[in-house]
Design a protein that fits this description.
Layout (H helix, E strand, L loop, with lengths): L17 H20 L7 H12 L4 E2 H7 L6 H11 L5 E6 L2 E6 L19 H13 L2 E2 H8 L5 H10 L2 E7 L6 E5 L1 H7 L10 H6 L26 E3 L15 H10 L15
Antiparallel strand pairs: 1-3, 2-3, 4-6, 5-6, 5-7
Helix pairs in contact: 2-4, 5-7
């Protein structure tokens, strides 16, 4: 019995697909509608003038200044209110400062425009001398620093060095008044490229670098510095209140205040009232 042959019939259809035509028409209509939607809305001319004045001003402007700059009959108060509402949700807001108006970056975006810079400040001669004395003679008190320098140390000199992080309070000297002793720390070593304080130049090295005069007083010597954190026999450990030097808040304000109140006052140097040379 002969098998039934299957035939492949190709039908040519030149007529356009109705469904495809309708889909293309809808897409074209949507594009037209969206294009019409993004067309800029015409704004009142006085509002545009007011916006331009505030934007171009180098400083905030008050309402009388705006009234004089705008054409007669413009309601400045209504225009400012309209602009303020229009810019309320934008990255730039119209704000009132006192009786004046200006554009400012939105407060919630201030983090985006914050720029941190490192300000280089040169230490004063008094600060450099004080730092050198602390490095070579540590642990040393303020009175001992003044005795070595021969002049009174300004109140802010030690504060500046403390803020740089190069020195630290070590303990309290076991003498009347129990003054604070100071020494260097790791930040000092890191900044000056030292492995330890003992790497500081000695007398011969200082002379070779021309930092010391040729004729030195008899018996003059440069001490061997040491930053051993172990307290010496003539030092007492610091108490919690001693760490509150105004550079950072104390962990507990009440306990710190009590500790400071109980601690005896540090004696003033005899030459404190003299001006620093």
């Amino acid at each position: 019995m002969p098998s039934a042959a299957k035939k492949l019939v190709i039908v040519s259809n030149d007529e356009p697909d109705t469904a495809a035509v309708q889909t293309d028409a809808r897409i074209e209509e949507t594009i037209i509608v969206e294009a019409e939607a993004i067309e800029p809305v015409e704004r009142p001319e006085e509002l545009r003038l007011l916006e331009a004045l505030l934007f171009a001003a180098s400083e905030p402007l008050d309402e009388p200044t705006l009234v004089r700059a705008l054409p007669d009959g413009v309601d400045v108060k209504a225009g400012l209110a309209a602009l303020q509402a229009e810019y309320a949700t934008r990255g730039v807001n119209l704000v009132r400062i006192g009786k004046k108006w200006t554009f400012r970056t939105a407060s919630d975006l201030s983090w985006l425009l914050t720029k941190e810079t490192v300000e280089q400040r040169k230490l004063s001669r008094a600060a450099v001398e004080t730092l050198a004395i602390i490095a070579y003679h540590q642990p040393v008190t303020r009175a001992e620093i003044e005795e070595i320098r021969g002049v009174a140390t300004a109140a802010g000199t030690l504060d500046v060095l403390l803020k740089t992080g190069w020195i630290r309070p070590r303990g309290r000297r076991k003498v009347p008044g129990r003054p604070i002793t100071y020494g260097t720390n790791e930040a000092f070593l890191s900044h000056f490229g030292l492995e330890e304080v003992a790497d500081l130049p000695g007398l011969d090295e200082l002379k070779g670098a021309g930092l010391l005069e040729g004729s030195m007083p008899a018996g003059f010597s440069v001490p061997m510095p040491s930053d051993d954190s172990t307290l010496r026999d003539d030092e007492d450990p610091l108490e919690p209140g001693d760490l509150d030097l105004g550079l950072a808040p104390a962990p507990e304000a009440e306990s710190s205040a009590e500790a400071v109140a109980e601690a005896p006052a540090e004696p003033e140097a005899s030459g404190e009232g003299e001006s620093e040379k």
